[in-house]
Design the sequence.
C-alpha cells in the first residue's frame, strides 16, 4: 500500500521567503516530528535520522534524501530512500496578491518497505504536514491558513 497526502495552505509572505524555509534542510527536517537528527552533505543531499514508533523498528532509520528538482522559488521535489521506506515530497509555491502571499501545495508519497511503516504514515502524514505549516508560520513570523 502506498500512502499519498496533499495539503495546501497559504502563507502571508512572498514566495522567496517561503522558499528560504523549504530549501533549508534543517528547517524542513525540524518540522517533522519523527526526525531525530539530520546530517547535511550539501545543499541538495542530507540524511534524516527518523524514529518511527512501530514494533519492527527499534532504532532510528537513516533516510538518504536528495533534492532532485529545484526551480527557485517555485518548485522543489525530493526523494528519500532507506531500508524502511521510500518517500517522495513536492513543494509547489504560487504567488498570490501580487506576490505578497504564497499558496504552498505539498504532496507526499510514502512506500513502506517494512511492516507498519505505511500504516504509521497513513495515520500521521497529514499531521506532519500541519506541523510543516505551523513551522513555516513561526519561522517567518506570519500567518498561515489551510485551504
Sequence:
Amino acid at each position: 500500500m502506498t500512502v499519498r497526502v496533499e495539503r495546501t495552505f497559504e502563507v502571508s509572505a512572498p514566495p522567496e521567503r517561503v522558499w528560504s524555509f523549504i530549501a533549508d534542510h534543517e528547517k524542513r527536517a525540524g518540522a517533522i516530528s519523527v526526525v531525530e537528527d539530520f546530517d547535511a552533505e550539501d545543499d541538495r543531499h542530507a540524511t534524516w535520522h527518523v524514529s518511527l514508533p512501530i514494533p519492527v523498528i527499534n532504532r532510528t532509520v537513516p533516510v538518504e534524501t536528495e533534492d532532485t528538482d529545484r526551480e527557485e522559488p517555485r518548485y522543489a521535489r525530493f526523494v528519500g530512500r532507506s531500508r524502511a521506506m521510500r518517500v517522495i515530497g513536492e513543494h509547489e509555491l504560487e504567488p498570490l496578491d501580487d506576490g505578497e502571499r504564497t499558496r504552498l501545495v505539498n504532496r507526499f508519497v510514502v512506500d513502506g518497505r517494512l511492516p507498519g511503516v505505511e500504516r504509521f504514515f497513513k495515520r500521521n502524514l497529514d499531521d506532519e504536514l500541519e506541523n510543516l505549516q505551523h513551522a513555516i508560520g513561526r519561522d517567518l513570523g506570519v500567518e498561515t491558513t489551510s485551504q
User: Anything to note?
Assistant: The two ends are 27 Å apart (CA to CA). The longest strand covers residues 85-96. The CA atoms of residues 137 and 143 lie 6 Å apart. Residues 117-140 form the longest helix (24 residues).
